[in-house]
Amino acid sequence: MPLAFVNSRRRMLLCGHLGDMFEPEKELPIPEGAATMVRYDSRICAADGEQYKLIFLDNGSMIPLFPYDRSLQNPVVAVFGEGEFVLVTATPQGLGLGVFISQNGEPVRGTLEWTAIPKSLAFHFPYVAALLNNNTIEIHNVMTQQRVQSLTLPPNVDSRFLAEATFNLDVNTTGGSSTSSGGTIRILIGCKNCVLALTMTPLASQVDQLLEQRDVERALELAEHMMLAQPDESALRKKTQMEHLYRRAALLHFQDTLFDEALGLLKKGATDPAFLTSWFPDIADHTEGLDVDMSEKHPEYPATSDAIVNAYLSKEYADADPETLTSFGEALFGNAQSMLGEYLRYARTIYPVDDPRQEHIDMTLLKLYIKTDPARLASFLSSPTRCRMADAEALLEAQKRYYDLSLLHKTRGMNENVLDMWHRLAVGEIEDPAFPGLETVCEYVKALEHRDIVMSAVEWVLRLDRGLAIGILVHHMDKTMSMGDIEAYLKEREPEAYVEFVERLVFGREEQDPNLHTTLALLYLTTLQSLATPSSLTSLDTAYLSLPTRPTYRSFLLSRPSDRLCVERAKLLNFLDTSAHIDYGVVAERVEAVEGLKAERAVVMTKQGGDKDAEAVVKLWLEVGDDVSAEACAVAQPVPETRGRLLRVLLEHCMRDEGGDPQQHMKAIGLLNRHATHFDLLSILPALPTTWSLRLLAPHFIASALRSSVHAHRTSVITKNVAKGMHLKTHAVLLDERQARVAVHLPEGGVRCCVCEKGVTDPTVFARWEDGRVTHVHCVGRGESTR
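and the corresponding structure tokens:
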């Protein structure tokens, strides 16, 4: 392959390729000349007498880089890696600096520092060797810019330059030579009278040495750089080698109880989970069929995590008291197990589902969580796992982790086993604090689709929590069972549960089916009939009437929550009043059949509507003693006349005894003041007791009544005058119509008057009726009206 060649001659750059013969490529003028230069591809980095510069062969352009002091140094420039240049400059103090420049002229990497000024450079990845003017060779790592070695040449050696060896020669020395050692020649030193060589320990050996010295970070850094410098090596081979090194480094960290650092390296090394779990024999699962390579276990290292921790404590805390050792030991054991769990969770994501390692990972995680992390156990078992069912059941039952066992059954679709375990937990046959309760059972059963399993669960949930069982049935209605099935089931086992079931449909799901609403009202009535007797209803009404200040009858019932009869009546009254879908005709018959349910009859009659029923409703409320509900019924009437008539009934009730209860009189006064517009002032005032003070009525009733009367009077006057005006206008229109009667010509054949039966002789003056008959004009008033 021809060698790219560049030469400076008479302030000209001569570029070409040197093979069997020189093939010129291009000539470029360089007015300042070139003291030294190197070429990479189409870039030339050169130095004239004052500065470094970058020359582009493709277009002949030049970029000045930076100057140097010729009195301090000779320019030195070299190529490194893929198109990078390193340029040497000096400081007035006699120190050397190396600057890396990209092939576009931009600074890259860091800066190299030498104790003296270099006069030659040579590279062997990842190192750069510099021959200094004090006859010393300094070697730096290019990646970190750190000096790694310094060599002083013998005084009698007149060194001139360095060059990278283009051949491989291994040197094995024997005997007692003090100036050389075995290795591979990598760099040559050109001297005046001889050629010397620098041998280098292979990078792989350097990595091994660093690992043996437990300098893990430097060893891995060197290994990664070594892999980058081997472009011809297959990617798979390099990956395998690095994974092996990562695992070795992880084990070193593991031995030093640096578990967090070890975790990252275990992941990079693609460590077999079974290899890692072998360090935890009390947790690891012994899965059959796994082929695990244990050759990486160092025979001199402790074989288990417990032994590692104990060895570390004996070494680092030899003088610590037992209590301190125990505390530190527990913390380190916990960190080791935490690292194991983290790696196994990571490993679950990288192996195929059918890989036998998945079973090993899951069984080990199960044991680890049971021992160290019960909180994570439930989450682990709630998702699909590859745990062996028989072994997992035995482990969980031995630790009394019954709820976690049910979660394992749940993920395997073993619904009957799940519900059986939860039933035993719910009734206290077995105990597990992790069991969340019947709410979890309810949600699980709602998600099932098998009718028999659902009904089996409802059977025992109904005995423990009727509300949750009803929730399950409501959810499954019209899915796995019909309304009729549920009705028959509940009526047979627990009738009260059927009432709650219908309530859940009406109030919870807001069903608007009239049959459901009517059924619920009738169920309430049935319950009421079983509780009520004529004497209990009478005593209840008597207690209400005896109150000094009576609220509404419904409020009175609600104020007695300990009385089941009051609670059921309040529930019925509220439902009858608020539902818009009840068949009140059906309910009315049942209400009438129960003597003493006056309030219920009043509500039903109100819902049925009608002016006649409205007055009966008001009287029923008054009979109960609930003046507030009676007034509300009257005010709710849409027709003003009906509303006024019912309010007068209320007023008469309050004033029925002129010398009676003062509270009734105050109610009458309140009624007048609240609804003054519905009462006629002139008819009411004479009926009021003479003992009443007008001051009680003046602010509201009298003022409102006067305003209403004046307004009504003025409205009637206006209406009368408007009617008169309209009458006059209509009369004028009529007169205009009569005067504007149109005469038509008599037909040629002649005709007789339909009124006087005489012939119509005037050929131009006559009238015609709507039906076509003709008459004299003067006969019109004697006959029918015409149009």
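(Above: one complete record from the training split.) Residues 698-739 form the longest helix (42 residues).
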